[in-house]
Amino acid sequence: MLLPNYFKEWLSGFVEAEGCFSIRKNNNHSFSIGQKYDYYLINAIKQFLSVTNMVRNPYPNFYSLEIYKKETLKNIIIHFNNYPLLGEKAESFQIFNQKFK
Hints:
This protein is of the alpha+beta class. It has one domain (9-99): Homing endonucleases (Endonuclease I-creI, Roll), CATH 3.10.28. It is built from four helices and four strands. Strand 1 and strand 2 form a beta hairpin.
């Protein structure tokens, strides 16, 4: 799949609106993103991040991707350090990044 040259910047903006950084009680980290009606978009993100997880379809017409694998989360952290989030999600990412081991 050929992605546009602005995809990295676009992804940071999209995650600002639709992404979620989570830290579980057991200190496991995860990143998730979802979109209604757009499997192809979530699949493009999956391919860009080299994620092996399946794109899930938990609700009709809603597609999501959840990432728990440490190596992939490291790549996601690198991406957002290079293409920073600029809104409220930047705060969530900062905490996520600081507590990631």
